[in-house]
Amino acid sequence: MPFGERRWPLGGEAGDEVDVQTTADVEVCERWIRDFRESGRDCVGLDIEWKANTVKGQRPEPVATLQLATETSALVLQVLYFRPGECAGLRDLLADETVLKLGVGIKGDLLKLLKDCNLHCAGGLDLSKHFKSTLGLRIKEEIGLKRLAKFVLGFDLDKPKMVSRSDWSTSSLDEAQIKYAALDAVVACKIFQRLRSCDDFARSAISLRTNYYLRKSFASRKLKQQGWSKRLLVFGCVFLLIWSPSLVLAGFMTPNQVQRDVVCAFWGLCSLLKTVQLWGTEMCKYDKPLSSYVKPDAQELFQGVLTGTALTGLFYLALWFFGFGTIAPSRVGGGAGVLRAAGLGILSGFTKELLFRGVVQKELERDLKPDGKAALVLGLIFASAHLSPHGFVGLALLSLCLSEGKKAFGGSLSYSIGLHSSLVATTMLGSSAYVQTYPAPVWLVGSSGQSPLFLEGALGIALLSVLRLGLQNKKRRKKRRAKKKR
């Protein structure tokens, strides 16, 4: 059924539900408007949607849906499938100056209704202007509905771009479209009613919340204008600010050094996740920052794990083949040793990739074009951060491989996390199980030859170079396939 009646909870306010009717039937429209008139209300939330243009300079599509709403009820009219001019109740309601039509940028919506549907509208009230005048805010910029919902109602209104730019001309709107359309009009009505009914104390609370979010938004805009080094410095300061209390609390909680280290490490992980969440929300406008940075994909993660395991396996296989050493599995420490290595590998791979390939690389790419330049600078930062002079070249090359992996898999960090995690875990296991039978050249395996290190010698660097070439080739093949599809 393309049309019907549904009920949804309004996000952010438990138990607050909205009855939504989707229709192209004149009788249903007349009935909803009659109920609205009988309720004695003097305002209605109003919004419109139309199919987004896909070609630059294309003539705007006509209005596809018209939404009318109170705080608890919404009507989504699919005006492409009936003649709104034939609905006398709708014409009278829109032309009635005594009934306020609420929305952000409402003037443009009312003009488009007149142009596309020949519906004369009166009584429009722009909520952005009304909000600023009510609170005495002296700012020129328009405050959108999403921010008004945050300031006045205190909850996040979900407005995904993939829904807003979807095909609104279809007769069978999906659930996401109907919910998106209805809640916009409902929230507009709720914002107006909250501003109308709040006392001085509530108005002061709204003003404080608004000033806080506006100052934070202003600060993030100013920060975006700074260079990447200053932005990353601020990111580091925010992380340290969140993490530093653990240094004091750990000392009070336990006298044991190991336990203190565990507390600080766990707090550090939580601090990093929180900092990334704040950064993604403010600087990148992500609704779900962690998911947006990582773009999780189980298959790509598995491919990364296989690649890292294969690289380490080839490294130790070459050492065995040339008679430098062998692997003694009994030295790993059984299942506990494997679990310890796997846990440390996952922790190291996830946190470092989220930080370096997620946050740092994105900030570098804002300023450094082309992307290859950003990847090169990131490689130097990544290698320097590990404080390992002997492994500097290998670490920088590993970073380039991880960045290539991100590009080759469409910006997802899943492959890079899998590759990084498995390299850390299998290298730990290999170092524990390796038994030297003949000293290997330091230039070949790094260290002193007693315990070969994957990233310090020519052998590991050669394997990483081959991997990078393979990832670059994969990226080129992917681009060619995309061009053929066009």
CATH architecture of the largest domain: 2-Layer Sandwich
CATH class category of the largest domain = Alpha Beta
What proportion of the residues is helical, as a percent range? 55-70%
Largest sheet: 7 strands, mixed
Order of helices and strands: EEHEEEHEHEHHHHHHHHHHEHHHHEHH
Q: Tell how many strands the DSSP assignment holds.
A: 9
Oligomeric state of this protein = single chain
Spatial strand order of the main sheet: 1-2-5-4-3-6-7
Q: Residue-averaged pLDDT, rounded? A: 89
Terminal CA distance reads: 34 Å
Beta-strand residue fraction: 5-15%
At the fold tier of CATH, the topology name of the largest domain is Nucleotidyltransferase, domain 5
Please identify the structural class as seen in this structure.
Answer: alpha/beta
Total separate domains: 2
Keywords: Exonuclease, Hydrolase, Magnesium, Membrane, Metal-binding, Nuclease, Nucleus, Transmembrane, Transmembrane helix
Domain 3'-5' exonuclease: 20-200
Pfam families: DNA_pol_A_exo1 (PF01612), Rce1-like (PF02517)
Protein name: 3'-5' exonuclease
